[in-house]
Specification:
heterodimer; A: alpha+beta; 2 helices; B: alpha+beta; Beta-lactamase Inhibitory Protein, Chain:B, domain 1; five-stranded antiparallel beta sheet; 3 helices; 5 strands; rod-shaped
Chain lengths: 141, 130
């Protein structure tokens, strides 16, 4: 029985796709819940206290001293890793387990820093970096 | 109704063929911060010595704004993996519980700040989305 081209194309396409994605790994690593600009929109410098912030965002990861008061820091991390092993194809023909790997890691680290005065009132707040977030992309070149 | 049975069978067989396995791992750092011990700490009443007897020595001792701050923390990591023949998905989620006990110059507790972020931590394997 001969398969018509219209029925063969999806099979070929899916095979090519499967072969392309052979030996793929997709890993994501998150530390704490990322805080966005919207999450900190309620903070009014000079009015909001650290206690108000803690009520909404939880405790900071660290509190350190400064000349003008206290610095509270919320840290978070979002890492994305993807890998493709084209050497997996040789498994069917070669007795040797050969690897041809391409991989890429995107590390998104950020922190929200709050500067408070001696009465625990937030005077300044800022993110260390304004990240757009890493993407899953195994192509390293 | 009869149509669904072969379809369900095909899906189950495909899932069994494609799935090599699943993996769940968990790692913790530090002891659980007991809510009873934290509730026993009263502002303007409890002393530094009582805090130490309730919670033990702090993980970090800070001097902030003219006060001593005892920091206790605990980290919880949950890893979920779905291992397929062609592609593997993994997700590592880490969150922490933090307790700050602020002690004034007289050695009395001024404030207690606790947040338990690990309560909502789940095993996830799907790496996309939030």
């Amino acid at each position: 029985m001969k398969l018509p081209l219209s029925r063969l194309c999806p099979i070929l396409l899916s095979t090519v796709l499967c072969v392309t994605f052979v030996g793929c790994n997709v890993v994501r690593f998150t530390l704490n819940t990322p805080i966005t600009q919207n999450d900190v929109a309620f903070i009014v410098p000079g009015q909001t206290t650290l206690a108000d912030v803690i009520t909404k965002l939880g405790t900071p990861d660290s509190i350190t001293d400064s000349y003008t008061g206290v610095v509270a820091t919320y840290r978070f991390l979002d890492m994305k890793y993807s890998r493709v092993n084209f050497g997996w194809l040789l498994k069917f023909w070669s007795p040797v387990d050969a690897d041809l790997l391409i991989s890429r890691t995107g590390l998104g680290t950020d922190a929200l820093e709050l500067l408070c005065d001696s009465n625990w009132v937030v005077t300044h707040q800022s993110f260390l970096r304004h990240l757009s977030g890493p993407r899953f992309n195994p192509y390293p070149f | 109704m009869l149509l669904f049975k072969p379809l369900a069978g095909i899906i189950i067989v495909l899932a069994l063929i494609m799935t090599q396995g699943c993996a769940f791992s968990r790692g913790t750092l530090g002891e659980d911060i007991s809510s009873e011990s934290v509730d026993a700490i009263k502002k303007a009443t409890t002393t530094k010595a009582e805090v130490l007897s309730l919670l033990g020595a702090p993980d970090r001792l800070l001097q902030v704004n003219g006060r001593d701050v005892f920091q206790y923390y605990r980290y919880d990591a949950k890893v979920g993996s779905l291992l397929l023949i062609l592609i593997n998905f993994s997700r590592v989620s880490i969150k922490s519980d933090d307790l700050f006990v602020i002690i004034d110059r007289e050695g009395i507790v001024e404030d207690v700040i606790l947040s338990k972020r690990t309560d909502g931590l789940k095993f996830r394997f799907w790496p996309f989305g939030e």
